[in-house]
Amino acid sequence: MDRSISILKFLKYTIAFVFLTSGLMKLVHTELADYFMNLGIPFPLEVMYIVAWIEICCGALLLLNKYTKLATIALMAIMIGAIILTKLPVLNSGVIHALFNARLDIVMLILLAVLYRNRVIIIKKTP
């Protein structure tokens, strides 16, 4: 039982790291602004900054073990949006190619779903 708790904590900290660094990169690097400009969405820079701050805030919430369920829901929405906007257009290159491009987004989405489902498990140690 102790091992499952430590694995869940490791998963939470790993996901927090990914989204904290992803959000910070969106705020710091101008190349990502160019990428958002080419997505064909309205107000691309504003969307990028909103996504960046949501990633940073939710990553911090996961790190601090606060509002985990809400944070994972917001991050899952971001991952679904990222898959729809950036990975589905690649389908015209072939399914295998699209799956290859989406593999990391899909893995993060699955890990977020695991974290969401297991957040409510509380195991008390008995002395």
UniProtKB/TrEMBL annotation:
<protein>
    <submittedName>
        <fullName>DoxX family protein</fullName>
    </submittedName>
</protein>
<keyword id="KW-0812">Transmembrane</keyword>
<feature type="transmembrane region" description="Helical">
    <location>
        <begin position="7"/>
        <end position="27"/>
    </location>
</feature>
<feature type="transmembrane region" description="Helical">
    <location>
        <begin position="71"/>
        <end position="90"/>
    </location>
</feature>
<keyword id="KW-0472">Membrane</keyword>
<feature type="transmembrane region" description="Helical">
    <location>
        <begin position="47"/>
        <end position="64"/>
    </location>
</feature>
<keyword id="KW-1133">Transmembrane helix</keyword>
<dbReference type="InterPro" id="IPR032808">
    <property type="entry name" value="DoxX"/>
</dbReference>
<dbReference type="Pfam" id="PF07681">
    <property type="entry name" value="DoxX"/>
</dbReference>
<feature type="transmembrane region" description="Helical">
    <location>
        <begin position="96"/>
        <end position="116"/>
    </location>
</feature>
